Amino acid sequence: MVVSGAQLWAINWALKTRPTAISINFFIVNELYCKLRKMTRIRFLLLLLFSAFALVTHAQGLKRVFGNVYSLADSTPLVGATVYSGVRYATLTQENGYFELTIPDSQHFLHVSYLGFISMRVDLRQGGLPKAIYLHEASELLDPVVISAGKSEQQQTRTTVSIQSIQPYLVRNRITSNLEQTINQIPGVNTADGQVNIRSGSGWSYGTGSRVTVLVDDLPIMAGGTGQILWSFIPIENIEQVEVIKGASSVLYGSSALNGIVHVRTGWPQGKPLIKAAVFSGFYGTPPNALWKWQGNRLLSKSGALFLYGNSVGQWDYVVSGLGVYDEGWRMGDQDKRARLSTKLRHRSEDNKLIYGIHANAQYGRTGSFLLWENYQMAYTSLGSQYALNTSERYTLDPFLTYHGNTWTHEVKARSLFVRNGVDPLPGQPDQQNKMDLSYLEYRAKPKFERWKFLNLTLGSVWQYGESQGTMFGGVKVQSNMAAFVQADLSWKRLDISGGARYEYYRLSNYTEGKPVFKLGANYRLLKGTFLRASAGQGYRFPVVSEYFIRTQAGPVTVYPNTDLKSESGYSTELGLRQVIPLGKLKMMADLAVFRMEYRNMMEFTFGSWGTQFDTLFGLGFKSLNIGRARIDGFEFSLSGEAKWRRSKLRFISGYTYSNPVNLEPDYAYVTQNGNALNYKQTSSDSTGTILKYRVRHMIRADVQYELARFEFGVSYRYMSSVEAIDLIFENSFLGLMNLGIKESREANKKGDHVVDIRGAYKLTADWKISIAVENLFNEEYMTRPADMRAPRNFQLQIGFRY
Q: Which helix (H) or strand (E) holds 498?
C-alpha cells in the first residue's frame, strides 16, 4: 500500500493526539484503501480526511471518569454515594467507595453527594478529577441533610416547614430500649400513652388513632386497626437519624399526618463490617411517696441486650440486628418483656442503576397495660388491683426496588404488617384476642430535567388494605384507601419553593369518602446564614377501625364504639426565621416560628357515660367524638449548636413552645346513648369550655452533651406546664361512684413538671464503652395524663462494644 505524504502527515497527527482511537481507525482506513485503490487520489484523500474527522470527533465526544469517595473524618469509604454530571449521567459508589462514569466532553463538572455529608462539586477543567474525593461530614445539629420534607435529600436550612432532627448519639447515650422516650426530648413534642403530640395538636387518645404518622424508612409503623404507633417494634439499635415535621403533612404522607410526622431512618454498612453490641441493666428507685410502693420491699428491675452486624459482600449489603428487654415496670401489671429480630438485605447492580432488596422484622412480647390508678395515695396500683397481660406477635416484610434510568427514577416500596394480640381476660370480661393485617404499596417516580435542573418533581401513588378481626371489632372489619400525589420543589438561587397536591379515597366497611389536600411553601435566603420561610398545608384524618367499631375493656373501664364518627380535616400555617450563628469554634442555629393550626370535626377521646346502667361502671367509659372546630395558635423558639476543640466536643439542643389551644365551638352538642345532649362546656373541667383538653400551654426541652477525651457527660431537661382542662367526670368522683383523687393530684402539680435526666460514659478503648444513666434525677412527681403517674428515679448501667 502506498500512502501519500499528506495522508501520512494526517495519520501521524491523529496518532499523536488520539493514539488509541485513531490507531484502530488507521487499520479501518487501510482496508478501505485496498478496496478503493482504483478511486482517484482526490476522492480518496477526501474520504480519508472525512473518516479521520468523524472518528476524532467521536473520540472527543465521551470521556471516562473514575475514582473513590471517602469520609474526610476517618477515610471510611462511602458506599452508595451519588456521583453525577448533568441529569442524564449518574452512578452510585460501590465497594470501597469506587465509581466509574462515562460522560460527554462538554460536561465540565462532577457532583458528589452522600446523606449526612456536604455535597461537593468537582471542576474537571482545573487539573482533572482527583482519584480520591473526600467529603466533609455535615453538621449533625446545625444543618443536617433531611428527606422527610420532600421525599428527597435537602439541607434543613432550605426547607419550607419546621423540621427537627436528632442524631443517633442522643438515642445511644440515653440507654433506652424505646424511641418514645427520646422523642420526648425534641422541642415542641411530647407523648402520652404512645401517642405523639406536636405543638398541642393532639390530646390523649389512649392508643386509638393518631394525628402524627410515624414511619421507618418511608413506611408507616402503625397498627392497621387501631392506628397505634408500634414504638417497641422500631429497630432502635440501627437508627441513623430521626426527623420530625411539625404541621400538616398529608400531601406526602396521607391520613394520620394531620399534625405532622416522625420519620426514622435506619443505616447500611459503609464499605466495611459494622459490629455493635450492648448489655444494660438497672432498677427503679423509691417513689416520691412511700405509700405508692405496691411490691413491698422487692426491687423492680429492668435489663436487656442488643446487637447489630452489617457488612457488604460484592454487590450485596446486609444488616442483622436484635433487641431483648426484660422490664418489670414501676407500676402494678405494667411489665414489658419482648424480643425482636430485624434484617435488611439489598443488591446493587454493577452500574448502581438497579437496587432491590427486602427488610424483615419479627417480635414477640408479653406486656401489661395500666389505664387508671386505684387512687392518688396508691398511684402505682391499678384500679381495683386488676390488670390484663397481652401476648403480642408482630411481623413485617418490606420488599423494595429502585431504578435510576437516564430520564426517570422509579421507586417501589411495599409493606406487609401482621399484628397478633392475645389478651388474658379478667373474670367476667369478654374475649379480647385480635389480629390486624395491613398491606401497603407505594410507587414514586421522579423525572430528570436536562434544561430545568432547578426543578425536582415527585409523582406517586399509594394503595393500602387492612383487615381487623376479633370480638372487640364485632367480627372482621375491612379498611382500604388509594391515593395519588404530586410535589414540585424549585430551587433558584436564593429561593426555594415547594408545592403539592394529593387526592385520597378511603373506605371503612360501608363508609366511603374522598378528599383533596394541597400545600405551598417558600424559603428565601435573606443573608448568608439567614433564611425566611412561610408555608401553608392542609391535612385530614379518617377514623380507624377501633374508633368506629371497637367495644372492649381495659381493666374495669369500657371503650365504646361510635359509628357516627366523621373524618376530621384542617390546615396549618407557619412563618419562620432561621439564623446560623458562628462564634469561633461554636456554631449555633436559632429558629423562630409562629404557627396556627385549625381543625374541623376534630376527634377527641372523651370519658363519660356512654353505656347503660347494666354496663361496667354503670356505662362510664371512653368514646371518640367529633367536638367541632378547634384552633391552636402559638410560637416556638429553638437553639441548637455544637463546638469542636482538639480533645473535646460540645453539642446541645433546646427549645421553648407556647401554644394556645382553644375550642371554637364549645356549645357544639353531641348526644349520649340515652339521648342526653352534651357539649364541650359540660364535659370539660375548664369552666369556660374553650381550652382543649389534655394540652399544655408552655413546654421547654433542652439537652446538652459534652465530651472530653474519653469521658462523656450529658443532661436532659423537660418542663411542661400543668394541663388546664381534662374530662370533668375525672374531678367529680365518677358521679359519686368512687374518688380517684385526680383533682387532688392536679392541685399538687399545678405549677407544672420539671424533669431532669443525667448520663455519663467512659471509653475503655476505641471500641468499648461503659455508660450510666439516671432518669428523673430529683424524683419528680409528674403525670402525662390523669391517673398516670410516671416513673420514679431510676438507674441504668450499660457496657457496649462498637467496631
A: strand 495-508
